[in-house]
């Protein structure tokens, strides 16, 4: 399929090159024959069901969808998807997926990773995939603990967290994955919760339509080693006062009767939560996920209290157009072939920039 340039923005938008499926698909088509083996009650089950249920919406041939994972509980994901997949090495899933997406643009490439896999040993690979804007969809399961290795603190564990590896409490300040992604110039950043299937599916829907890297942080409960970490966002009564649902083009209001709102402090420029009154109602921010500046999206990512999760935004923080890495790379290769013809690997290896080692 051809590609088109969006005039006036310099952004190259690649139309889908992935073959469509023949006939109608269902959730059953995306379930593999492998026994799903996570701990009973793990939040991964809910995420798996949501992804399997969403995949038919893409209308893509299963043979042209790939899930790449690293190491961790979440990284068993490719086994359970009836697509192609790879259970790769610790932290390197974004790097492997980058090579795949760049060389095989007829594939829809998804990365499944966890807070330890992505943000510890894999931190470098993650931020470079985000800044390059490779056409990847990254699902980052965040349970704030190392589950596979039995309960050590992770890069997202709160300060003071008592675990097997921090018996006196963690001293490390935790990463905020959304803040990190926005700081790395990610073009699509979102957050959702494992148990909210409707919201999770809607975020997947928006991410899949995005050209470039889409990162979705998914709060995922580890009921064995960190149970209840996100109860404040799941309990109906608590969630009404804690969860801020971001919707593009709508005022950022929440709470019972939408009595609370997010405004910008006139003195500091920071965002803050206020009780909405007739006097300040016009000051409530209208969410703009498509703003070219990441400033407000970053400020929204800092609203949540890391310990209590009070005032936690979920939804799409940022979704902007940027040149897509693999599209640009393909354009460069096409130009090089047009100007110089196809390369000769043997000539390159034996070219002028070689030397002989004398023993």
UniProtKB/TrEMBL annotation:
Classification via PANTHER family: 2-OXOGLUTARATE OXIDOREDUCTASE SUBUNIT KORB (PTHR48084:SF4), 2-OXOGLUTARATE OXIDOREDUCTASE SUBUNIT KORB-RELATED (PTHR48084)
Native organism: Streptomyces lomondensis
Protein name listed in UniProt: 2-oxoglutarate ferredoxin oxidoreductase subunit beta
Superkingdom of origin: Bacteria
Residue ranges occupied by any Thiamine pyrophosphate enzyme TPP-binding domain in the UniProt entry: 71-218
Keywords from the named record: Oxidoreductase
Keyword Isomerase found: no
SUPFAM superfamilies in the record: Thiamin diphosphate-binding fold (THDP-binding)
């Amino acid at each position: 399929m051809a590609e088109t340039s969006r005039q006036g923005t310099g952004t190259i938008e690649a139309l889908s090159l992935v073959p469509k499926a023949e006939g109608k698909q269902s959730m059953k088509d995306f379930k593999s024959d492998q026994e799903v083996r996570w701990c009973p009650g793990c939040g991964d089950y809910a995420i798996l069901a949501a992804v399997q249920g969403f995949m038919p919406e893409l209308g893509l041939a299963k043979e042209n969808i790939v899930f790449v994972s690293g190491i961790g509980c979440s990284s068993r994901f490719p086994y359970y998807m009836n697509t192609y997949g790879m259970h790769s090495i610790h932290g390197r899933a974004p790097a492997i997926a980058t090579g795949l997406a760049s060389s095989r643009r007829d594939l829809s490439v998804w990365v499944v990773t966890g807070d330890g896999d992505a943000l510890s040993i894999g931190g470098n690979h993650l931020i470079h995939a985000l800044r390059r804007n490779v056409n990847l969809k990254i699902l980052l399961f965040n349970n704030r603990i190392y589950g596979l290795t039995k309960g050590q603190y992770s890069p997202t564990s709160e300060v003071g967290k008592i675990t097997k590896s921090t018996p006196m409490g963690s001293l490390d300040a935790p990463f905020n994955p959304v803040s990190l992604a926005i700081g790395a110039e990610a073009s699509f950043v979102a957050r959702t919760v494992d148990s909210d299937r409707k919201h999770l599916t809607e975020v997947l829907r928006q991410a899949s339509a995005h050209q470039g890297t889409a990162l979705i942080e998914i709060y995922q409960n580890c009921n064995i080693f960190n149970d209840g970490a996100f109860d404040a966002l799941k309990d109906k009564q608590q969630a009404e006062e804690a969860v801020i649902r971001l919707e593009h083009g709508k005022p950022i209001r929440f709470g019972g009767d939408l009595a609370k709102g997010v405004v910008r402090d006139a003195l500091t420029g920071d965002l803050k939560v206020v009780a909405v009154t007739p006097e300040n109602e016009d000051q409530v921010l209208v969410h703009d996920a498509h703003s070219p500046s990441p400033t407000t999206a970053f400020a929204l990512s800092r609203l949540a209290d890391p310990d209590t999760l009070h005032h936690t935004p979920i939804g799409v923080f940022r979704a902007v157009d940027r040149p897509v890495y693999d599209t640009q790379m393909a354009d460069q290769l096409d130009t090089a072939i047009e100007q110089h013809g196809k390369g000769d690997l043997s000539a390159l290896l034996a070219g002028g920039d070689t030397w002989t080692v004398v023993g």
